Amino acid sequence: MVLSVDLKIRGPDMTYKPIKIAPSILAADFARLGEEVKQAQDAGADWIHIDVMDGQFVPNITMGPLVVEAVKRVANIPLDVHLMTVQPERLIGRFAACGADSITVHVEACAHLHRVLGEVKSAGCRAGVALNPHTPAASLGEILDMVDIINVMTVNPGFGGQEFITATTAKISSLRAMVDEDGSKIDIEVDGGINRETISLAAAAGANVMIAGTCVFGHAGGIGAGIKELRRAIASLDS
Ligand code: DX5
Ligand code: ZN
């Protein structure tokens, strides 16, 4: 059952921006991946988040283009591919060809971020940039016009199931102010440690896309219950 409450955050212009839930398949049962992606989609997931780790930029190794291609066969919602890799520019074409709708690269992995974001757009995808917890909001000040999505890492990237770093909420607020002042439609994602408590902090700070792995795919009541719990938590902010 999909909870149909219209969940939104209030922008500085007093209009409301819908909040999206993007389950991260890092926490899915890989032996049943297609089935779990379908369950998330049927339960009202807005995007599917796919974490690509190369064992160099981060200590872990996860998925590649073949997994994106497989998820694409069962999903009809956007696939949000998060490249936690060195030299992400070498991978853009392959992930775009396999069905990525957005491709996010790390600021810390790109010496030539402007060029890389241009390559993502040329490949037909929305261009995302991710910021590690220590990377300031101001690092995007000169490049906002190239950006479609900002991913604020609310844990150190590399693993699911970590604790939300509360200090990142100040950066989310700064980015929300920058984006609104710019009048752009950039999505601000939060990634890591999102659960029914921390989602409220992220929403209040101005994030509008909530990436959630463990609390969706690892929920004791099932994937649908996990998504519903997150939607309820944000809905209570409006009341
Ligand atoms: C961490 C990944 C996250 C991760 C979130 O490096 O980028 O997307 O899957 O997982 P949870 O929700 O378990 O913190
Ligand atoms: Zn991620």
In short, what is this structure?
It is built from eight helices and ten strands. By secondary structure, the protein is of the alpha/beta class. The two termini are 22 Å apart.
Q: What does this entry look like structurally?
A:
With 239 residues, the protein is α/β, with parallel strands linked by helices. It has 8 helices and 10 strands. The strands form 2 sheets. The chain has an 8-stranded parallel beta sheet. It has a two-stranded antiparallel sheet with strand order 1-2. It starts with 7 loop residues before the first strand and ends with a helix. The N terminus is likely disordered. The site of D-xylitol-5-phosphate has 20 residues, from strand 4 and strand 10.
Task: Quickly list its features.
single chain, 239 residues, alpha/beta, 8-stranded parallel sheet, two-stranded antiparallel ribbon, 8 helices, 33% helix, disordered N terminus, binds D-xylitol-5-phosphate, binds zinc ion
